[in-house]
Amino acid sequence: MNALARTAMRTVLPRARTAAPSRTMAVESRAHLYKDIPTNWDQLKNNIWLSDAGALPVIFVLTFACGLSATFIGYNCVANPDVRITTSKRQQLIRTWE
User: Fold this and answer.
1) In the prediction, which pLDDT does 44 show?
2) 3-state SS, residue 19
3) Are 84 and 90 in contact (CB under 8 A)?
4) Confidence check: pLDDT of 47 > 60
5) Closest CA to 48 of 31, 35, 63, 32
6) Would you tell me which of 29, 43, 63, 69 could form a disulfide with 34, CB atoms 3.0–4.6 Å apart?
7) Which of 98, 72, 82 is nearest to 90 (CA)?
């Protein structure tokens, strides 16, 4: 569409504006939700993150990723010979403890 046709569509054929109000966050519908860090079970059940169905897949994916990375780090600390946790073995260039 060229510039002349675009200008003609805006000026010659104006579109009617809808009278729909602008959308805002539903503060009234979320007034019963707890928005701070929960300190007891009732506040946790009414937490804004747990009440939103769209946030649950995000929470599950993050939990899985954190668990998987912690397992990988733990496995490498225990099984990998290049990871040296003991202070006496850190500065040695040649591995003599195998």
Assistant:
1) 74
2) coil
3) yes
4) yes
5) 35
6) 43
7) 82
**CA pair distance 70, 75, nearest whole angstrom:** 8
Q: How far is CA 60 from the centre of its chain?
A: 10
| CA dihedral (70, 76, 79, 84) positive or negative | negative
As given in the structure block, the two tokens for residue 77 are 């600390």
Contact status, residue 63 vs residue 77, Cβ threshold 8 Å:
no
Is 70 a residue whose pLDDT tops 70? yes
3-state helix, strand, coil in the chain (%, to 5): 50, 0, 50
pLDDT for position 66 = 98
CB distance 69 to 76 below 8 Å: no
Q: How confident is the model at residue 69 (pLDDT cuts 50, 70, 90)?
A: very high
